[in-house]
Amino acid sequence: MYAITIPEPGGPEVLAWAEVPDPVPAAGEVLVEVVASAVNRADLLQRQGFYDPPPGSSPYPGLECAGRIVALGPGVAGWAVGDEVCALLSGGGHAQRVAVPAGQLLPVPKGLSPIEAAALPEAVCTVWSNVFQVAHLRPGETLLVQGGASGIGTMAIQLGKAVGARVAVTAGSAAKLARCAELGADITIDYREQDFVAALREATDGAGADVILDIIGAKYLQRNVDALAVNGRLVIIGLQGGVKGEINLNTLLRKRAAVAATNLRGRPLGEKAAIVAAVREHVWPLVESGVVKPVIDRVLPMADAGAAHQVVEAGEQVGKVVLQA
């Protein structure tokens, strides 16, 4: 088969569409013939040499895919050869075939193509596990999504609105903010022109956000705490703005607030399977009814993964950039 390989760390130009050995499904795994995958920030970090796959995972990038099951490993039940599926991966999605733990499979939602479904697993599982399982967003609360036009951001907007929350977003252009508003965002903040803390306070009559989903990290740490409401919850899932920061603990104490930081890729198989099962139960009905939709900026050939990396690295897209095998 062919896969996107990383012969050496570097820019998008180092990515190579090369022939590699076919994966073999181990016990509890299935082999998926990939129709499409999507590009995530973790793929860019892996290409740059900063984010190796977890031990035992595929060495190729790609944290999600959609396609068809072509073989079952020993001990797999509930799935059959020919089933159309999408999957949460630890790596290997940017290839013609990938071995997937059965607990990380989801059926392609009714009414969606595999190309559309390829944009769902990583974003949905990330948002569900952090906004709802960690931060426990409730109806009527305010959710602030940093980077609302990203793949994760566009999904967080839709899921926040689906449960009856008020959703605020930050983004870096009027066009991106307009797209976020189309998806349901109630409060749109241009972080290049506005102080998001002041803008959010004004929009919420001084209350702030009950939950903040943050992809920036250190650069926004204290400002995110300042933006929290009393009993607010900040969940950090990205480090685009650095890894070391300071916070005023007195602010945190006075607000009786909480800060959590999580990732998805390195979690044990059982935890990932539990998240995927919850997504299938709670989110898949919303997708199949059209309440929640994949947001795809563009579809490119998988062999042109370097061009896709350039788009994501520059932050040009709204939603996901999908690679078609």
Automatic annotation (TrEMBL):
The keyword Transmembrane does not apply. Residues 10-323 form the Enoyl reductase (ER) domain. Gene3D superfamilies: Medium-chain alcohol dehydrogenases, catalytic domain, NAD(P)-binding Rossmann-like Domain. SMART domains: PKS_ER. The keyword NADP applies. Signal peptide: none annotated. InterPro entries: ADH-like_C, ADH-like_N, ER, GroES-like_sf, NAD(P)-bd_dom_sf, Quinone_OxRdtase_PIG3. Keywords: NADP, Oxidoreductase. This is NAD(P)H-quinone oxidoreductase. It comes from Kitasatospora cystarginea.
